[in-house]
Structure formats: structure tokens, C-alpha cells
Amino acid sequence: MKKISITYEMVIAIVAICMSIYSLIIINRVANVEEKIGKNKITTLKVGVLSVPPVSLYDAGTKTATGHSVDIIAAIGKRTNLRIEFISSSWETFGSALISNQVDVVIGPIFMTEGRAFEYLFSKPIYDFAVVPVISNENNSINAISDLQKSGLRVAVGRGGFDADFVSKFMKGAIISEFPPNDPNLGMLEVAAGRADVAIVDYGTAVRFAENNSNVRVLEKMVLSRQNAGFLVRSEDYFLKEFLDVAIRNLKISGELDSINLKYSKSKIWYDEAGSNFQ
């Protein structure tokens, strides 16, 4: 068999061809995005709001929305001359609201799980959440990760979130009580009442609850898991995901996002420290 000798010129030619193909793909993709935007003639963005303050909250009485995510979307609308229409949504109905075109985007602390990514598109991450344990002040039996893995431990956790994923994976001997995800305080109320030994909940929610309930404490240094969260759009609306990603990036560049973050810094929505014991 004749040996083929690959020269430097051949390598350069192959690279040039690959770059040309890639450029054509990108040009076609941008053209498709522009065509879709023009075809839809988007002037109003319908935004479903999950009521999980201080991230997002919809007041049905006044028909107004407030919160960190709401401020970000409002800033995007102002920058791009889009009219923003905020609509009340819920954990049970946000999927059907997207699919039926009742809303274009859903905002709130929506964890970026594989299951959701299979059905929808996420914007770039907005939040970094951490899962921590919450115990009563009288409880001196939980001091290390291994203590959480004891058989028979009574655990309260929200249903369907990455905190529930952690419990199912790493606390197999636990007696688990699950609660609806729309009120993350329910598990910690079980701890306060003595009906659970520990609640597994996101850091910000835990700290805010403990500030108003002196009979519980947060094991802040025992970070169990981390998860990003972002905005959600329909799986076919890639152009809208790209629009949100670019808009969020531009808010960051302009300093507007930092100003919004500063406004909510005392609310401890997200987790700032690095590291996790399991991920």
C-alpha cells in the first residue's frame, strides 16, 4: 500500500475548508434566527412568573410582578423596546403554559435539570443555588456529612427539585417527607415543630427562614450540592434563548445586572461560596 504523506499545505487546506463549513453553518443559523424574529414580529414578550420571592412574585390583586428575575426581564424589555406582559404561573402549569403559547418565557428559581433540559431550553444561568441542612437548635447529633446518612433520620424536602435528588441519592436510609415545591418553608416548619430531624433546602431560603425563626439553625458550611437556575423557553424557540442570552450578557457588560444584584444582595438569593461535598 502506498503511504500518503500529509504536508503542511494539506493541513492548512483542510483547516480552511472546515472553517468555511463552520462559517456557513453559523451564517445560516443567524439568518434563521433573524427570519424567525422578523416572521414573528415580536413586540410583546409574555412572561410567566413563578411566585417564589424574592426571586419572583406575581400579585394577582394588583396584577403586578416583583423580584430579582422580574427586574432582569424588565431591564431587557427597556433596552430592546419590548413590551413585557407578566402573567401568573405555577410549578404545576408552567409547562403547559409554554406549550400552548400562553407565555413565551417562564422566570423564577427554575433548576437546570437534565429532565427539564430534555423538554425545554434554558437561558444562560442566572443563579447558583446550594443545598444545605437545617436543624433545630436542640439537635446536636448532626455535625458531619456522615450523620445525614444514618438510617431512620427524618428528612423534610421539597418535591422534584435538586434537593430531593440529593436526598434520594445520598440519604437512602432516611424517612422522607416531601412537600410541594411552591412553598420551600414547609420542610423547615416540620423541623421547627419537631416532626423532622433535618430539612434539606437551598441556602438562601434557609438563611431567610432562620432569621425569622430562632429555634432552627442553618449548617451553612455543610454544602451538599450545587445547581444553576435560569429562564425557560419552548424547545423550538432557540432564537428566543439566544436573544435572552445576549440581552443578559449586555446587562452584565453595561453594569445594569450588577446594580440589580446589589439591590437584592441582602436577600441571599444565591450562594457565593465555592465548593461542594458531593458535586
Structure characteristics:
3 domains, 39% helix, disordered C terminus, 279 residues, 12 strands, D-Maltodextrin-Binding Protein, domain 2
The top-level CATH class of the largest domain is Alpha Beta
Output the CATH homologous superfamily of the largest domain. Periplasmic binding protein-like II
Count of discrete structural domains? 3
Q: N- to C-terminal separation?
A: 51 Å
Q: Major sheet: size, sense and barrel closure?
A: 10 strands, mixed
CATH topology of the largest domain: D-Maltodextrin-Binding Protein, domain 2
Binned strand content: 15-25%
Supply the number of helical segments. 9
Oligomer: single chain
> What is the arithmetic mean of pLDDT?
84
Helix vs. strand class: alpha/beta
Give the overall form.
Answer: globular
CATH architecture of the largest domain: 3-Layer(aba) Sandwich
Helix residue percentage: 25-40%
Poorly predicted residue ranges: 273-279
Radius of gyration, in Å, reads 23 Å
